[in-house]
Amino acid sequence: MTFNELQKKRHSVYDISKNVFLTKDEIIAMIQEAVRDSPTAFNNQTVRVVITFGESSDKVWDITLEELEKVSASPAAFAKTTAKINTFKAGFGTILFFTETDTVKKMEEAFPLYAANFGDWAEQGLGGAQQAVWETLTEHDLGGSLQHYNPLIDAKISKAFALPKSWKLRAQMPFGAIETPAEAKDKIAVADQFKIFE
C-alpha cells in the first residue's frame, strides 16, 4: 500500500476490540520505529511515548473517567461520557504521547534566536510522530483515534506510571482491531485550502 493509500484509509475508528492478531512485541516495535523515524526540529527528539496494554491501558481510562466525573454537568451527561470512555477501554491498548519539556527549554537556551519557536516546533514534531504511528497502525489493519483529555488527567497519569515531571501529556490514542470501519469525512474545497503560484 502506498503512502497516499494509507492516508485515505486512515480514519478515527471508535469501534475497536482486543481481537488483534499481532503480538504485543510486534506492536511495540512498529510504534517505536514510527516515532524514532519521525522528524523533529534541530533533531531535538522531544517526543516521548508510553505504550500500555491490559490493566495498564484500563488504568488510563479509569483515571480519565474518574476525573471526568468530577466535572460532569449531570448524571445523564456522565452516562454518555462513560459509554464513550468504554469504547476506548475496549481496545487492545493505549498510546500516550508526551513532550519532553526539559529538552525544549535546553534548545531555547542553546539557540536564543529561535527560542520563541521551540514550543511550536515540539508540537509539530509530536504531530508528525502521531501521524506516523497512526499510519503504521493503519498499515497493519488496526484502528485508533486521537484523544485529548489533558490537562485534566495529567497529574494522575504521571503518578500512576511514575513518569518524569518533564514529560507533558499531549494526547492519548486508544487502538485495537477494527470492528466497524469509520466513514470518510467531508473535506473542504481544494480551492479553499491551496494557493498555487508559478
UniProtKB/TrEMBL annotation:
Q: Write down a Pfam family by its short name.
A: Nitroreductase
Q: Which positions fall inside the Nitroreductase domain?
A: 8-176
InterPro entries linked to this entry:
Frm2/Hbn1, Nitroreductase, Nitroreductase-like
Per the record, the domain of life is Bacteria
Q: PANTHER family per the record?
A: FATTY ACID REPRESSION MUTANT PROTEIN 2-RELATED
Name-wise, this protein is Nitroreductase domain-containing protein
User: What lineage is on file?
Assistant: Bacteria, Bacillati, Bacillota, Bacilli, Lactobacillales
